Amino acid sequence: MRRFLRKFLRSWLAAFGLAVVLLVVVGALTATWISPFDPAAQDILRRLLPPLSRSEDGLHLLGTDALGRDVLSRLIAGSRVSLLVGVLSVVVSGVIGVTFGLIAGYDDKRAGRVLMAITDVQLAIPFLVLAIAVVAVLGPSLFNLVMVLGLTNWVQYARIVRAEVLVLRNREFVLAARALGASTPRILLVHLLPNVTSSIIVVSSLQVAKMILFESSLSFLGLGVPSTIPTWGSMIADGRDYVAHAWWVAAIPGLAIFITVVAINLVGDRLRDMLDPRLKQVEN
Fold it and tell me: What pLDDT is stored for residue 279 in this prediction?
């Protein structure tokens, strides 16, 4: 692990991305203790204060919004929703996609063809339209949002895992396990799954950034979590009418989304370079 971490940190871009990701994670985990104000507390008398403004309650480092709520406190609280939705939806889509990919790759006849037909149908459905329709029917909630994102983004896992399993299923260790009488579930879980784990890790790291963007888009449209819970997307929606004279209300959460997504992508790219044998380079 130490050797892996040292090699990972040789890229200053990856080190920067990892530092930003850790900062966001720590902020999300300790939001209750480090938030300078209550993110839901309203005070019309201090509405639209610019960054570095002071009030009777203290310093508003990033200003306040149209209802007098502290932007920094809401930004920290919103990181919880973004990370939680991003990670949980990736777990749901990963479990579904990896399962489909393993079965479709190992049994490329009836089961494999049926599963890949389902995959092709899923690809033909516009994701954002489907997500908006489902959330609009079921109502905005954290559970519904996670399930919608998870159930509509498993296709990439299935296609990548299936492609690798199609190659691995004819390797000697799989043929030997089959000759020794190993059951199909044992071959899939013990022999094939560990050999595609690196690809799953890379895809998952990149999918987290994608899920954060989708969550922000749905929250911006008012179809994410309930409006009482602060999110980065809803903060941008709240500040879009004040961009001309209170730019910080919408610009700061937008910048937080941008930096977080870029940081996660930098970490994912570095993991891909290190874990994909086709992209490994001999270092002096």
Answer: 52
- How many Cβ atoms sit within 10 Å of the Cβ of residue 81? 24
- Between CA 153 and CA 101 the distance in angstroms is 13
254's tokens: 């937008």
Q: Decide: 238 and 65 in contact? Cβ < 8 Å.
A: yes
What count of Cα atoms within 13 Å lies in the side-chain half-sphere of residue 67? Answer: 11
| Residues 111, 165: Cα–Cα separation, whole Å | 14
CB atoms closer than 10 angstroms to residue 97:
27
Backbone angles phi, psi at 34, to 5 degrees: -100, -10
Query: Which residues lie closer than 8 Å to 56 by C-beta, 6 or more apart?
Result: none
Task: For residue 51, count other CB atoms closer than 10 A to its CB.
Answer: 15
What number is the average pLDDT over the span 277-284? 49
Question: Which string of DSSP letters, residue by residue, matches 191-255?
Answer: IIHHHHHHHHHHHHHHHHHHHHHHHHHHHHTT-SS-TTS--HHHHHHHHGGGTTT-THHHHHHHH
pTM reported for the whole predicted model: 0.86
> Are the CB atoms for 146 and 89 separated by under 8 Å?
yes
Amino acid occupying residue 241? D
The pLDDT value recorded for residue 256 is 93
Whether residue 268 contacts residue 202, with contact meaning beta carbons closer than 8 Å, is answered with: yes
- Model confidence over 13-29: pLDDT tens digits? 989 999 999 999 999 99
Residue 259, pLDDT score:
94
Confidence of residue 276 (pLDDT cuts 50, 70, 90): low
Nearest to 58 by CA among 75, 31, 35: 35
Task: Give the CA-trace dihedral at 94, 96, 102, 105, to 10 degrees.
Answer: -110
Please write the tens of the pLDDT for every residue from 168-191. Answer: 888 888 889 888 888 888 989 888
Helix (H) or strand (E) holding 54: strand 53-55
